[in-house]
Input
Amino acid sequence: MLMNGTYPFPLPLTVSHEGAGTVAAWGSEVTGWEVGERVLCPIASGHCGKCRHCKGEEAYQRYCFKAKQRGVQLAGAFAEYMLVDAEETLRLPAAIPFDMAPPLACAGRTIHTAISLPSLAPGSTLCILGSGGGLGHIGIQFAKSLGLRVIGIDARDAALTLSTEMGADLVLDARKGDAFVIESVRTFTGASADEEGGADAAINVAEAPTAPGLAAAVTRRQGTVVQVAAPVEGIGFPFHELLIRDVRVRGSFLGGKRSAERMLEMVVERGVVVKREVVSGLEGVNGLVERAERGDVGKGVVRLREE
Output
C-alpha cells in the first residue's frame, strides 16, 4: 500500500508494521513488564481515550481517528529497537517462535477478527477467497479450529496446494470461472430444488477486481461477506447480490487486544502454523518484496538478530 501510494507517509520512515521482540526498557508510567519479556508488537499507537470508539467496546478502539499506524505513519519494525504502546502490547507465548510471530501481528489478528464477525456456529460453512495467501492459509486453520467447514478459493497452483495442506474441506480453482466456483459451492452446501445453497459467510482476502462479487455470489441469501482485501482499484459488488439476494457486507482490519490474546491462545493450543520465508538482515528485504510481487505463497520475515 505504501509502494502504490494508497496511504500518504512521512519521509524518512522505518517501515514494517509487523514485529516481535523482547522488552528493552519502558516509560516512567509503565508497569508490569520485565526486561527480556517476549512480546508481539501492536501496530496502532496514540489512541485518544476520549472518542466514542475508545470509550465503547474494546473491539472498536482500533477505529479511533487519532490513532496512527506503525510502519505507515510512525516508525516500524525494520530496526533494532521499536517504540510501542505498552497498553496494546501482547505477551508472546514461549511456544511461538520469533520467526513465526510477526505475521500474527497483522495477518493473524486481521483474519481471526474477520472470522469472528459473522458469528458462525460450528458446522457452518465459510468460504475464504485468497485461501492460499498470507492471511488465507492462517484463516483456514483458525476456522477449522472453530469447527467450521471451509471452502478455499484461489487462482494459483501453489496456493491451492497450500489450502489443501492447511485443512480446507473443499478447494476450488478460481481460474475455472465464476460459474464453476458458484455451482461447486452450492452443491457442497446442499443446493436442491427447494434450496439455493451457498456458504453461510465468505471472507475476501483476494485483491482481484472480481473477487468481491464472487465472494457475494458464493454466499447464501442473508449471509455475510467480510471484505478484508484493499485493492488499489477499489471495491465493487453487483447490486443484485446486495439488493435481491440480501447479502450483507462488512469491512474489517486488525482486531482488539482481547481478540488478539485469544488468537495467540488458539495458535498454541491448535498448533497453527504460518508458512514463511525467513531472511537474516535488512539486505534480504528487496528479495522478499520481489517474492510478494510474484505472488509466492506464505509470508516473508526478516530476522534482525538471533534469539
In short: The mean pLDDT is 92.
